[in-house]
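Objective 1b of the project was to move from sequence-level analysis to a structural picture of ligand recognition. The entry below was assembled by the postdoctoral researcher (A.K.) and checked by the PI before modelling. It contains the amino acid sequence of the target and the SMILES of the bound compound, S-adenosylmethionine.
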Amino acid sequence: MEWVNNFYNKQFQLYKEGLTGPNEEHEEILTKIETLASKPFQSILELGAGGGEFAITAAKKGYDVSAVELVGSRVDYMKKLKNEHNLIGELEIIEGDFYEVDLPKSFDVICYIDGFGIGDDHDQQKLLKRMSNWLKPDGCILIDIYAPWYWASVAGQEMMVGSKLRKYDFDFLNCRMLDTWFDGDENVTQSLRCYSPQDLKMLLEDTGLMLVDIKPGGAMNYKTWQYHENVDLDEAMSYMAKLVPGQGCR
Ligand SMILES: C[S@@+](CC[C@H](N)C(=O)[O-])C[C@H]1O[C@@H](n2cnc3c(N)ncnc32)[C@H](O)[C@@H]1O
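Corresponding predicted holo structure:
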């Protein structure tokens, strides 16, 4: 997993000029989380919080958020945003690795928005067990999971992000989406394991968690270059999975 720090730092450097802070997209994510949680809650643990746009949005609405992020440049940006916004709830910014960090608290909702699937299945299970330990007994975990069929279908797709080339690929043997950003002679690649809901159920074995709901996300159509917000699972780039304490699935 050596690529992780390098990729997410480089990606941040390449697109940070275009960042404008929290926006409607983050409010929509919060609405999705509130809807899937299906009951009122107060505390949120966000893993892989990036530049903190979602964490700020939630704290502005009154939630108490603990945001864990590995990459220092992203943490610095999150701290800057925290100073610029009036928050109603608490925002605790934790610079650290979610595989190592010690969190002596438990939470109503734990979320990982975009980016799940970094290591192999054992790494994912280790993280899920850690999440399960940080979760209140009546809480829920909400994770964006990449859908294998979408990422297989866009293998080879290229696009420009500002002046930089980005290319998607798919590792068919290991069911992983590959996302490469080119900057001159240098390039960095993100590699994320994709799971169907059935794969996810198998991954959850022995984690003390069960899958109880999913909500498909949107999809980019590269023939028309249009993004569609709400598509069926068979077309979606990812789906949000709701996990709760328990075995098997409901
Ligand atoms: C695809 S980005 C998504 C960022 C943010 N959630 C969003 O939706 O904009 C994944 C994030 O997870 C962070 N991350 C990856 N591995 C991590 C780890 N082991 N501990 C903490 N954060 C990590 C990365 O640095 C990156 O900011």
